[in-house]
Request: fold
Amino acid sequence: MNLYKTATSGTTIGLVVVLVVVVIAAGAYIALNPGGTTTTTVVNTTTATSTATSTATSTAISTATSTAVSTATSTLTSTFTSNTLLPAATVNAGGGTLVYPLMQAWINTYSFVQPNIQISYSAVGSGKGIAGITSGLYTIGESDAPLSKAQYAGLPANSTLLTIPVSDSGIIPAYNLPGITAHLNFTGNVLAEIFYGSITMWNDPRIANLQSPSVAAQLPTHAIQVYHRSDGSGTMYGFTQFLSDSNSTWKSQIGYSTGTLAWPVGIGCLHNAGVADCIATTPYSIGPLEIAYEIANPGQINYGAVRNAFGNYIVANLTNISGALAAAISNGLPSTDPQWTSYSVIQATFNDTSDPYIYPVSTFTYALVYQDLSASYASTSQAQAVAALNFLSWVVNDGQSKSPTSSGATLGYPPLPLSAVTLDNSLLASITYNGTPVL
Amino acid sequence: MTASPKEKRRSGSKGDLVLKAVVGAAAVGVIAILVGLGVELTSGSWLSIKTFGLGFITGSTWNPPHDIFNVFPFILGTLITSALALLFGLPIGLGVAIFLSERAGRTRGVGAALGSLVELLAAVPSVIYGLWGLLVLVPFMRAYVEPTLKTYLGFTQLFNAAPFGLDLLTAGVVLTIMIIPTISAVSRDVLNAVPNSQREAMYSLGATDWEVTRKAVLPYARSGIFGATILGLGRAVGETMAVTFVVGNATAIPTSLISPGYTLTSLIVNQFGTTTDPLSDAALVEVGLVLFMLALVINAFARVLVWRMTRSTRFRV
Amino acid sequence: MTSISQTGRRQEWRRILDRIMKVLVILAVVIAVIPLVLVVWDVVSQGLPAITLNFFTHNPPSPCSTGQIASGSSYCWGGILNGIEGSFLMVGMATLIAVPVGVGAGIYFSEWPESRLSFLSSFTNDVLAEFPTITIGLFIFVLIVETTRTFSAVAGATSLAIIMLPIVARTTEESLKLVPTTLREASMALGIPRWKTIFRIVISTGRSGLATGILLAIARAAGETAPLVVTAGYLNFPPTGLFQPTASIPYIIYNFGTGGDYANWTTTAWGAALALVVFMLILNLSVKLFIGRRFAGVRAEI
Reply:
């Protein structure tokens, strides 16, 4: 017969019992005492007026500011002054990965403004952000692209979804060319051909012809290593939409999407950091990168200038991206849901020949909220509705400012132009709960 | 005892019935979960099954904006990375198992310590292997291993691509690390189950240790070891997080071992957020269904083999 | 079989071969152990800088640019408080679900092994044990998350419970089966009803095996990531309710580890990885220490 040593068994049982009891007790304690250890002081937010700054240094046109830009950002003051302590609520938000770091910074800073409110943001992807709003999973959806016709068709009957720009995105062509420090010039068409695989060598005449003679002479006789994102993202959406507008072959063969794409050539790297790392470690490579990465990690990578509709080659910075979007808004943003399905910010800036200094590969990223938050399909309680709109209002007004703790700019996200802020405030004011406006 | 034997028996049998019913319900619950999984996956992917039929697994284009979903490249990726994992993992796992089982008598010393360390490999969560793989292994492969492979073996198509680090080979290496504990633990159990009489007979004829292992133990344990291998294969096929970090995430058919690829599991994790319409949703669930059926077949096969080997030695008197 | 009558050279070759194979076997063990050493080394060296007392009492920080980090602003460091609390909550709930069901199923497998249900269910149990966890997560996503219209700790705990269940059932079955039949027979011969036999005698004899199973299942659940991504979501604060998104330590590693754009996020991920690895090692080592070799082999495939 083979019995066990009861001595060791006793110790074991004791250990297990203690562990399980501790785990369950901790779980029960946490379940019954939500909220954790956030501070309880309410911070009165005041916002500084923002001034337009530029962080790029280059010989191409990048430091000039257009008139649209200066009026857009120079007089940005906060209209958000509420500091009443709101009741506890946890708000479900989810969507694209592009704005995730900024969203997290906003959420953390906002938790000092309103300590009883916790916002949860799941960076599941724009597709799931839209799906989440459709199914009521999220109170605030986030997408890097407006809804398509099919997605609008999938929304609940008789619902009105508001598309609210909350931040900007600018995509730069980053590259690694040993010995060349100047910003190379690109057009959308040439970029499309590079990423399609039609242009394979750096010293291809199609690239050389865009450069000044001294730079053209430096172009090496070497194959181009193409990199792109392996995961779907708003960055790729904006970039491929720009390529589609520039090149009909790209449009018909590959198209654009916030999800995966059938890239004809090149290797996929994960996230902006992955693409940057890929480019940094591979000479003679090129890849599309979000401007946020460059600003958060300055000087690590070279990037080129892109030609806008006016004909200038623009090196992207926060100012000319905001300016491009201000120019797009001045042509009017769609006001009703169906109008958004055929509207493209990239296309608006692509065709804008009036403004000399805008950066053409610029787009918005949007929050999606139902207009009637009390409807059953919105799955939102009153407290959640108040919290959600308070947060969005803070984001749109305070969150765009230059204070380090809440600023998108420090993280490299261009701020919303003033016209967008005004538009957003009016959209937010129109959201109701049981008939009365929430804000 | 004042109760009559009949009363005691009755109360005993009532308790027996209750216990049997309760634990029986638990057993039914296990089956219910698996059945529920299968039903859910099938119903969720119905739209995609109707649209693509068998072409889903034979076609090789995955182009979401144009609503084309075929998964052959990903099946290939799963099979290749798992095959690599088995290729490296079987010799190592078997070696560890032989080492541990032939030293079965000792519970102290370097041997036992090494054995414990191998088992601790299984204690590290897969997401940490993924993180380590991405940040440490990939640069190593990219800088040292793959250029060497390309230089010396590049004439074969297998290694003829730009060495990048994020590829099937690296994923295979990470999977190897993760299945070594599986193969070695099951193999060790299997080897331990070989009756000592077999060994003793060989020793008495003057065989060396290795000859005993090779000619008496291994042949006896053959089907069990095969079962351990299949279990390892099942583990490799189902592994998600570690592979997602390092496999390269490319949707085209991979042309070499050092080009980026995709596996069925990492496809689901990466694409989960990007589906934008019912068809792409269904396609993703169908990937899950393919995975379900693959895992079912592999694990069922493995269990049958391991059972035959070890079941008979379960009961002790 | 080799014959006994050998020439001297053949004897020598056999001895050499034996030596070679012994070296190869030891080499295999060393190769198997190297990755563990490497991984632990890297996790410790990268994660240790992040570990301070504050690491366990604060939530993860906001992303910081290199400039902000260099300036040493306290805004840029944080911790994994939300992950610790969330993991405790969800693993605790999962244990409450998985242990009764798993022990129950294990008892059925071991005490009524002849029945068809036992065969089928035990088989299914083994299949479930190796199942790709992402599909389990998707299953719960459709079942619970979409119906309750929220990511939740409950959904996360349920998916963890499904993953823990086969481990508990299997180790319960195996440890109960190792209890000698003579004990059962002796008890029944004394007139003790079967259910009392099972509880009082069989289970208490096999209790260290049960304990191992529970500990190993907890270890497995604490390290799972993929299902939590699609069931529990994420919240940068400690849990606010059972039906709200909830953080977990593996999710922090996954999320912040791949957000390499921000160095303080990567450091947080390494620190979380270190905390998790230490927890796992402690759990596994205590299983070995207290229970010994018998159940060292019966451990969870994570």
User: Anything to note?
Assistant: Chain C touches chain A through 63 residues (CB under 8 Å). The two ends of chain C are 41 Å apart (CA to CA). The CA atoms of residues 137 and 265 of chain C lie 26 Å apart. DSSP finds 13 helices and no strands in chain C.
